[in-house]
Every structure is written in C-alpha cells, then in structure tokens.
Design a protein that fits this description.
The protein has 240 residues and is mainly alpha-helical. It has eleven helices and six strands.
Length: 240
Amino acid sequence: MLDFQTALTRLAPTTGGLDPFRSFRPGDAERACLEVLRQSAGFRFTAAVQHSWCARRAVNAGLLALSIMRGDARRRLLGAWIRSGGGTSSLFAAEADALLEFIAEQLPDPSPELAVCRFEQLTLRANDAASSFTAPDRPLFELRRIVRQGRHAGVVLFHGEPDMILNALWHRKPLPDFSPEVTPLLVAPGLKPVCRIASRHELELWNKLAVPMVSTALQQDRCSRDAIETMLHVGALEFA
C-alpha cells in the first residue's frame, strides 16, 4: 500500500518528472489503475490546483526578479520551475533562494536582469542571517586560520550604475546603454544596510577566495590587511 501511495504522489506534475514506478514493481491491476487515474478529470483538476498554488506562492513572495519580467516570460519560467519540482516547500527562505537560482540559470550572462536576480538572492540570504550574525573578535585576525567567502554574502557586478538599472527595470523603462565599467556591490549580513559598493581591494580579495586560503598566505600575497579585516568584520568573509 505504501509503495502504491508513493507512486500515486509521483504522478503529480510538480514532482520534477519522477518515475512513479521507481523502486516499485506494480502488478498489472495496479499499473492499470494508476494509468486510468492519470487520465481522470479529478486527477487533472487536482494537478491544476496544485500547479496554481505553487505558482501563486512564487508570485506572492513578491520577488523583484519575477516582477521585472514580461508576463509571458514569467509564466513560461514559472511553468518550468514547477515542472522541475519547485514550489512545494513551506520554507520561504529556501524556496525563494532555489527559485532565484533557477531564474538566474535561465538569464544571459552578463545582463542587467541577471545582476538584479543575483542581487536579490544575496540580499535575502544576508537578511536571513543578519539577526544571528556576530562579528569575530579582532584578535582572531592574527591567528593562522583558513578564510573563505561568506556563505551569506557575495559580490554582484552591475555594468553601469545599479540605481539606474534597477529603476529602469522596475518601471519598465529603456535600460541604460551597456557600460564596460563594472560597479561591484558587496552584500553581507553585517552591513547596515546589507549592501554597499565594494572597493577594488575587496573585489580582488573576494575573487581570490573562490578557493579558501590561510590568512597569513593572503597577507603574503599582498592582499590588503584592512580589506581582510573589514570583510571578516561584516561577514563577507568567514573563518572555515
């Protein structure tokens, strides 16, 4: 009975295409029952309601990345998201992060829309961690410890002025011309508010720590001590 119920739930289109008969060998009668049920009006209605509920959860979250999209593009993306198994979690933070990651994978890189999507994703992560964030003690900076990128932080690259790009997307106005000059925004749980423009040294340090490094090796590699301490203090970097 449990295997049959599991196969029944896997018929729903929101399970990401899971094989309903995985790890279950139904008899002829059970297989026929499931196939008939899949085509029934009642099951199709239930699946439609679930699809609508999952899509509404995403829209109700008020995500900026969704609001700046054209209606047809938004509906197409949400449909793909739900078919992949998204939209069923009751945990807002995890669901929003996963949806923004899914959206980001569909957008051209670089693009203003991708920058906004990553910025929103990082802002949600930083805000979620801000209430429990505690800056490390200054003496710890002297110790030989491994430093890595903060798990609730990041750097977003805007090709142009972020405020102008955000305003144009929000009000559906023509975007500013693509600029070769990049503005890096640092997002971290210890910042008030959670973002600001990153300095050249901070951007270099962030990129260098795509692979964790020992703190003393960073300083020997001519990384700015001030940048290391500042980024540790706001949670942009952390000790592994």
